[in-house]
Design brief:
The chain has 249 residues and is α/β, with parallel strands linked by helices. The protein has a single domain, classed as TIM Barrel (Alpha-Beta Barrel), CATH 3.20.20. It is 47% helix and 15% strand. The protein has 13 helices and eight strands. The chain has an eight-stranded parallel beta barrel with strand order 1-2-3-4-5-6-7-8, surrounded by six helices. Helix 1 crosses helix 13. About 3% of the residues have low confidence.
Length: 249
């Protein structure tokens, strides 16, 4: 999963939202607008870590007819559209229904670089995913929060095969809109000199919070603010470009 080492902007959106067929066009627009990495969420009816905005987008995507199979069908031409890293983010239940090995094989076939599965225990990953992920070149992205112990963080640093998703607060996505996590948490993680890069997510929604995240990590992940933007302003390239410029420049 190759990308630049600093000031990385990763954008999350829900596959099939606002319209079922928006997935690939959003990928193209984000790439052209200058995003460094993309996270595509596959919808689930009970997304535990997601706030009301992302939950609503997931519910609408499901109502539109989106499923994991359709996500993969839409992504068959992904690598004809972009060369930047693309991750899939979602929950374990739809993967189990799809079939674990088939899921991982299809991720590889369509060109997915890595996975973020917030509700998958590390032990389960070791027993059911690790061997196939390594053989297929799929990175496993693990999360930490302000409450994660130093011992646990070092363990996660040894286990992850991509970056460490550094959650800025203990709340669900989109709630921490003022990015009010303590600087001490960010500084503590930076001083640990972890072997893997960190990316900060949850509550980043403007240029100021993006710069703060980049000061303490390799970059930032934005989901709720982007989904709110396309809900209001649409999914045209002009709309996507305006959002990215507001964050990066």
């Amino acid at each position: 999963m190759e990308t630049k080492s600093k000031d990385i902007l990763s954008i999350y959106f829900t596959a099939g939202y606002p319209q079922l067929e928006d997935t690939l066009s959003l990928v193209q627009h984000l790439d052209k607008a200058g995003v460094d990495m993309i996270e595509i969420g596959f919808p689930f009816s009970d997304p535990l870590a997601d706030g009301p905005v992302i939950q609503a987008s997931s519910q609408q995507a499901i109502a539109n007819g989106m499923s994991l199979k359709i996500v993969f069908d839409q992504l068959r031409t992904l690598r004809e559209k972009t060369n930047i890293p693309v991750l899939l983010m979602g929950y374990l239940n739809p993967i189990l229904q799809y079939g674990e090995k088939e899921f991982l094989t299809t991720c590889h076939e369509v060109g997915i670089d890595g996975l973020i599965i917030p509700d998958m225990p590390i032990d389960y990953y070791h027993d059911h995913f690790e061997e196939n992920c390594r053989s297929l070149g799929l990175s496993n992205i693990l999360l930490i929060t302000p409450e994660t112990t130093e011992e646990r963080i070092h363990y996660i640093d040894r286990q992850t095969t991509g970056f460490i998703y550094m959650v800025s607060s203990n709340s669900i996505t989109g709630v921490n809109t003022k990015f009010n996590a303590t600087t001490a948490y960010f500084e503590r993680i930076r001083q640990m000199n972890l072997r893997h890069r960190t990316m900060i997510g949850f509550g980043i929604n403007n240029h100021e919070s993006f710069l703060k995240a980049c000061n303490y990590s390799s970059g930032a992940i934005i989901g709720t603010a982007f989904i709110q933007h396309i809900t209001t302003h649409g999914t045209s390239f002009e709309s996507v470009e305006a959002f990215v410029k507001k964050i990066k420049f």
